[in-house]
Amino acid sequence: MRTKQTIAVIGATGNMGSAIAKSLSVGNYRLLLHARDFNTCKQLATEILAIHRLADAEAMDCSMNACWEADIIIIATPDTENKEVSLRIREVASQKIVISIVNSLNDTYRGMIPAPETNGKEDIQQLLPHSKVVKVVMDSKRAAVNIAGIDQNAVEMVKELMSSAGYHSLPA
Question: Using CA atoms, how far apart are residues 132 and 104, in angstroms rounded to an integer?
Fold first, then answer.
């Protein structure tokens, strides 16, 4: 039996955040859910517990506290918020796997490339240099993900995590 991992989902009430939280709730994970609107986050936790009575999901009002307790951190916020979120959790994300969830923009998965206006400056790996950042581009229509990262062990762990959530990996 595998040890229960704690996963913080930052941006838990957005489309991608809630989809991944609900998918992971059936596994052997403790989910710490955070979003700007704490009441909506509590509603999501309640909804998850109503669907999966054995799930372990809790709404957190502080992203830093959620990430401090987590083994794995999922950032499912819009690209425009990545810098703010990364700077807020930087000191508690060191040496942890940080998953950046991106909704695929199209069938070519161009979402893997930073937007031209950011010039790559807000890339999460640059903001969290001591974390193992893995980017996951989700295609919810096909229940598929494209996974990329520098640390291959982290990439393999994220592939297993996404597989346990019901997503199949596409070739990078």
Answer: 21
Rounded CA-CA distance 72/74 in Å is: 7
Strand order in the sheet with 168-170: 56-59, 29-34, 5-10, 72-75, 97-103, 132-139, 144-149, 168-170
Task: Supply the CATH number for residue 95's domain.
Answer: 3.40.50.720
Q: What tens digit of pLDDT does each residue of 60-94 get?
A: 999 999 999 999 999 999 888 999 999 999 999 99
Q: pLDDT tens for residues 8-63?
A: 999 999 999 999 999 999 999 999 999 999 999 999 999 999 999 999 999 999 99
Beta strands, E only, 91-167? 97-103, 132-139, 144-149
Domain count, the chain: 1
The answer to whether 69 touches 6, Cβ cutoff 8 Å, is yes
CB neighbours (10 Å) of residue 40?
A: 14
Instruction: Output the CA–CA distances (angstroms, integers) from residue 164 to 29, 61, 170, in the order listed.
Output: 10, 27, 15
DSSP code at position 49? H
